[in-house]
Amino acid sequence: MPENPQRWIALLGRRDEPTDGVEDYCLHLRQALEKEGVALELFRVPWKEQGWIHSLHRLKERLLEQDASIALVQYTALGWSRRGFPLGVLALLRVLKRHGLTVLVVFHDVRPFSGRRFRDLARNRVQAWTMRQLAETSDRCVSALPIEQMLWVRADHLKRKFVTVPIGANLPEAKCGKVRERLQSSAHRTIAVFGVTGGAHISREVSDIAYAVSRASERASGLRVVVLGRGSPEAECSLREALRNTLVEVSVLGLLPAERVASVLADADVLLFVRRHLSARRGSAIAGIASGLPIVGYAGPETAFPVTEAGVELVPEGDREALAMSLSRIVTDDELRQELRRRSLRAHAEYFSWDRIAHLFVRELSGFDVAAHDHSKTLVPR
Fold it and tell me: Which of 45, 170, 249, 344 makes an SS bond possible with 310, Cβ 3.0 to 4.6 Å?
């Protein structure tokens, strides 16, 4: 770090529980930015505990103490509201602009919430309007998905503000890309499932996992499925029951420290991803890529470059038969599995490493002239 580094500040809203992916994102970005000569301070706005008036006053005091030039506002709807009406974040942006900061909004949520109830429809409209206002007020907008995926952005002058920056894995960077050697002749294969969506989606996801794994076990003996991360304890009973009449070994690990997650993924042979479709904003999928794993999952509207450059085998969303066939092929074909591993490692190095992401931030966003940009950019080389 140079003696006089550039100073940026990242603004976070309410902490997510039991794990906070947005905070992890900022911590990893901060560590990588240090190598680029940028000091990134994290400031959590305590609006939930202390109210908006007091929180904004504290922010003003902090800005007077720190000579930050760029503010990175981390946007999720529930990060800035209790029930998904995030209007308070607009007041936050006004404070930042009045203090002369260049403001970038990092959209971790790229779509408004859906639903058919009157409350859901109202929330959808408020969120879409709020996101448009954020884009209008900010100097730049950052998203892991291309602008085509954000249907609420219609005006050309707003589209020109967006840049696409991939997210990295919330794993220790030293562990990423360090794939342990797997014995080609080993008869045992480990299928990792990182994260299960709770609520109404859990039964569908467990059913898809069980179907794909059980069908794969018909062609490959000695299979083991390891489920970890959010939702895994809730899915354990139903998953064990669904696989009761197979020879598949089931291990459910729950929430783990990042170091342990990295070790579990490094020991796996393939990542099975059934949390809807594969997306570049899914941290669990990026963790698989960073761990050099082949990924079997569903393709959908958010499945796009650069995640498709990794070692992925994707099938139409909901096609369990095709999912099972792809999984079976990977656990039985050593040559295919190793080729997909190499593709994932290459994709991680080129697009998803934190050092690469930090370099892109600094190169494209430090001291930029908004008026000089007449088209939206994608910060990943094609």
Answer: 344
The two three-digit tokens of residue 246, written as one number: 């197979």
List, in sequence order, the alpha helices (H) in 161-282: 202-217, 232-242, 258-266
Tokens of 141: 């907008």
DSSP lists the bridge partners of residue 295 as: 271, 312
Where are the extended beta strands (E) located within 213-302?
223-228, 249-254, 270-277, 295-299
Distance of CA 140 to the CA centre of its chain: 20
Axis-axis angle for helices 258-266, 283-290 (nearest 10): 60
- The proportion of the chain whose per-residue pLDDT surpasses 70, expressed as a percent, equals 90
Centroid of chain to Cα 145? 10
Locate 39 and state its tokens. Answer: 């000091």
Three-class secondary structure of residue 307 per DSSP: helix
CA proximity to 320, closest of 177, 199, 248, 214:
214
What CA–CA distances, in Å, run from 84 to 14, 53, 275, 321, 372? Answer: 12, 19, 22, 37, 35
Structure tokens that stand for 238 in this block: 């139903």
Coil/strand/helix, residue 66? coil
Does the predicted model carry a pTM greater than 0.85?
Answer: yes
Overall residue count recorded for the chain in this entry: 382
Q: State the residue for tokens 């360090």.
A: 178
Model pLDDT for residues 12-68, shown as the tens digit of each residue: 999 998 889 999 999 999 999 999 999 999 999 999 999 999 999 999 999 998 888
Which domains, and CATH codes, for the chain?
Answer: 6-168+354-378 (3.40.50.2000), 173-352 (3.40.50.2000)
d(CA 324, CA 334): 17
Q: Which amino acid is at 10?
A: A
Give the separation between CA 160 and CA 154, rounded to whole angstroms.
Answer: 11
